[in-house]
Design brief:
single chain, alpha+beta, Jelly Rolls, twelve-stranded antiparallel beta sheet, about 35% helix
């Protein structure tokens, strides 16, 4: 039985991890200032059959946003993913997957609180010019925030993840990288350390990426929570999705 024949995302992840040279990957992660790219972490055939199809099914409910000079694209929040695409949640919560991340990052990574719409979300680049400008994935939590990207669909020659490693690190020359994120490719980084962007999508192209967020401390101050919710509302998921679901999650807790 091949990895492509795995019966669940949990099984596929466990098989993928067992085939990795974690010593080498841990070395590479730290040599690159807490950044790592693993091509074909999951088999392309498995991702396209089991995960890309779920992302396509959610596309009708995406929230499109446009911030002149910085961002244009579509997003589906954790709340919708949790309700309609359980395989992504299985990946996010996988003990084996989080154990691998803990090994690479040398910290104990925790799931984001249930009212964080970014914790397990989908980003869609579906219209010409969709992009996101250079930024850090700044943590508003009291601890660090780590971002994991999994390629789901990459039908583009122009839309690329571009990264400048070691930016703002004294005594280090920045290293520029441009990466395609094919189905199954995995990117892992410390959000406060990687200066990155996504270049504009071309005509009749499409790109979909799953993003997973983990934290070292899930606490967040009230002011930063409000700021984070406002940013997510206007830049990603929409006011109704963020505030209605965020406070609904809080009332259930």
């Amino acid at each position: 039985m091949t990895q492509a024949c795995a019966s669940s995302v949990t099984e596929a992840v466990e098989r993928a991890i067992s085939a990795l040279d974690l010593d080498r990957l841990e070395h590479d992660y730290w040599e690159q200032n807490e950044f790592l790219y693993i091509p074909q972490f999951l088999p392309r055939e498995f991702v396209e059959a089991e995960l890309t199809s779920q992302a396509q099914a959610l596309k009708s409910g995406l929230n499109r946003n446009y911030i002149p000079g910085h961002k244009k694209g579509g997003s589906v929040s954790y709340y919708a993913v949790r309700e309609q695409a359980p395989q992504f949640i299985d990946l996010y919560r996988s003990d084996a997957f989080r154990g691998m991340l803990n090994r690479l990052t040398k910290v104990n990574l925790l799931l984001c609180p249930d009212n964080d719409p970014h914790s397990c979300a989908l980003y869609y680049y579906t219209e010409a010019g969709d992009h996101i400008g250079y930024h850090y994935d700044t943590s508003y939590y009291k601890g660090a925030r780590y971002t994991i990207l999994l390629g789901l669909l990459d039908q583009s020659k122009q839309c690329r993840l571009v990264c400048d490693l070691f930016k703002d690190v004294p005594g280090k020359q920045p290293v520029h990288m441009e990466l395609a994120t094919a189905p199954g490719d995995l990117v892992i980084f410390n959000g406060d350390k990687l200066w990155h962007a996504v270049t504009p999508l071309g005509h009749q192209e499409e790109r979909i990426v799953l993003t997973l967020e983990y934290v070292t401390n899930p606490d967040m101050g009230a002011f930063k929570r409000l700021y984070s919710n406002l940013k997510d509302s206007f830049a990603y998921f929409g006011l109704r999705s963020v505030f209605k679901r965020a406070y609904s999650s809080r009332s259930r807790a």
